């Protein structure tokens, strides 16, 4: 660990990570402490899989050393609406120079992780800092441009349900369906982090419900992993495909089952047994209208049952 990289402690209290966003130097350790007396278990998991804690009971701690600069978005596997952001930066370079009779210490800041204008723009969007976002827009910044980690302003605003910032970005031409790192759209991020108001807004604006990310997952997969049945209901009402499969051939039902999201599973099953079946019957009837000869009713029923 670099000499200036101090350990940072994050407390899990009242179903929240406190503080919710931290910045540490490369090589520093972050320790999470389960201090939430209202929950039996908590975990700490990052989206990219770099941080994976065991189940933590009250009073237990988990530490992770961050050896690579970047932004790490973490959540609790048990209570997935909880999120925290760890930003890892390079430590300043220290150069000791000899100046004649005396020696002086010169600190030089590394340029390797200097925040770009788009880093600042996206970061402000994630914090719902509309005045800052507006200033960047007034300077002519492209609202769709990603930061150095590949994240986009609308996606991170949706992730944090920053409604004012989302409205501001859309008003200035933000592309609803544009993907960020990992292939996720704003609808993906809102569903992943359980933000129903952001989901409703994006759906009203015409966000495509079945776009798939780099892992083949659609927003409905993300909603089922989170587990909020309202997210699932909103997507299904927008005609999301309940049978869309990811790269591992898992449909949303599989995700809800594997993550034990029982409320989401019930919402899916009810939709597939009623509304979806009625919709498929309508499509089936339209298809049959093109036939010149009727097919036997038994065959028709068999075909429909197979398709539905």
TrEMBL record:
Could you give a GO molecular-function term held by this entry?
A: ubiquitin-protein transferase activity
Alphabetical list of InterPro entries matching this protein:
Ankyrin_rpt (IPR002110), Ankyrin_rpt-contain_sf (IPR036770), BlueCu_1 (IPR000923), Cupredoxin (IPR008972)
The UniProt keyword set, sorted, is:
ANK repeat, Copper, Metal-binding, Repeat
One Pfam family of this chain = Ank
SUPFAM superfamilies referenced in this protein's UniProt entry, alphabetically: Ankyrin repeat, Cupredoxins
Biological processes annotated in GO? protein K6-linked ubiquitination
ANK repeats by residue range: 182-214, 215-247
Blue (type 1) copper domain: residues covered = 8-88
Q: What is this protein called?
A: Blue (type 1) copper domain-containing protein
Q: Could you tell me which species this protein originates from?
A: Aphanomyces astaci
């Amino acid at each position: 660990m670099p000499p200036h990289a101090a350990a940072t402690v994050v407390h899990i209290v009242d179903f929240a990570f406190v503080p919710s966003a931290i910045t540490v130097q490369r090589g520093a350790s972050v320790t999470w402490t389960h201090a939430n007396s209202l929950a039996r278990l908590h975990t700490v998991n990052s989206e990219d899989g770099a941080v994976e804690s065991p189940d933590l009971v009250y009073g237990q701690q988990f530490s992770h050393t961050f050896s690579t600069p970047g932004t790490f978005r973490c959540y609790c596997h048990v209570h997935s609406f909880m999120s925290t952001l760890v930003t890892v930066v390079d430590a300043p370079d220290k150069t000791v120079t000899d100046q004649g009779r005396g020696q002086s210490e010169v600190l030089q800041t590394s340029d390797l992780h200097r925040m770009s204008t788009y880093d600042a723009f996206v970061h402000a969007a994630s914090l719902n800092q509309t005045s800052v976002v507006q200033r960047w827009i007034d300077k002519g910044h492209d609202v769709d441009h990603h930061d150095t980690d590949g994240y986009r302003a609308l996606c991170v605003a949706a992730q944090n349900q920053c409604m004012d910032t989302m409205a501001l970005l859309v008003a200035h031409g933000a592309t609803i369906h544009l993907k960020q790192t990992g292939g996720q759209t704003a609808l993906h991020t809102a569903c992943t982090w359980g933000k129903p108001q952001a989901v409703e807004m994006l759906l009203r604006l015409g966000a495509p419900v079945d776009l798939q990310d780099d892992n083949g997952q659609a927003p409905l997969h993300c909603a089922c992993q989170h587990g909020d049945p309202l997210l699932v209901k909103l997507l299904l009402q927008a005609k999301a495909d309940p049978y869309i499969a990811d790269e591992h051939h898992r449909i949303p039902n599989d995700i809800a089952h594997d993550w034990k999201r029982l409320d989401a599973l019930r919402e899916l099953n009810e939709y597939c047994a009623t509304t979806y079946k009625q919709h498929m019957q309508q499509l089936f009837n339209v298809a049959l209208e093109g036939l010149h000869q009727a097919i036997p009713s038994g065959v028709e029923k068999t075909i429909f049952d197979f398709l539905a």
